[in-house]
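Lecture 7 notes: from sequence to structure.

We start with a single chain of 275 residues. Read the sequence below before looking at the structure.
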Amino acid sequence: MERYRLKNIIILILILLNAFLLASLSMRKSAEQDSFRRTAEELMELFAADGMTLDVYAISREDPPAGVSLTRDPELEAEAAAFLLGDHPSYADSGGGIYQYRTKNGTALFRSSGGFEAAGTFGAGRGEEFCREFCQSFSFSEPIFQLEDSGGGTAAAVFEYGGLPVFNCIVTFTLENGAVTAASGTLLPQTGTASAASASGGAGNPAPLSAAGALAAFQRMRREQVAVVSAIVATSPCYELQSASPPLSLAPAWRISTDTEDYYVNCYTGAVTVG
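Now the structure, written as tokens:
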């Protein structure tokens, strides 16, 4: 009988503990929602005072991505060189972190900054398909073409890391007579490690800006530079490539889409870049 009562007491304690945890989570969620609502209302009033429309649904509730440290991948560069130039290109270390590849079809150079450039004749007769295949193989978005009736023109695509765009990491192609005659941009690996300043901040590192924080930084920039914007359309997470000095890294950022153009806010520094 005593064991039966003890069992019931334990079950009751567990039920009460679960109820307490659920209530605590509910209160926390409610507090977060209230905080977001107050912040959103303040931002909407701030933007309205400057003649701009900001809808609450344009303020993302997502967390910014974690920063990423990248290491140069010579095998990836060799694979890209083979794709562009054809199989088995010759290789030479030109010094200064520059690797050169060459075949009868052309030449390609890859730099330690992630930048590359290639010139020659690639994908003869299937230039558009060649661009799409390169982008699909090396983690770029669907290319956007600007072509003339002659088949010449350009194409551009944005690199994506973990499904998010790296707004200042782009590849561009030049097409002539249905072939690609030049390609240049930045090639990065898809594998990296979390940087010291993580998505939640870290020792000595401030937490990255939320979408609301990025909008506040954007508004300060707009007042200083008198940018012509009348409505905020959306905010979405992305990355910014940091390549001024090795090692390469990706900083979390926010894309602020407006009725005129896109702006990008670095989550660590608050610096705003026009798209």
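Confidence is low (pLDDT under 50) at residues 199-204. Keep this in mind for problem set 3.
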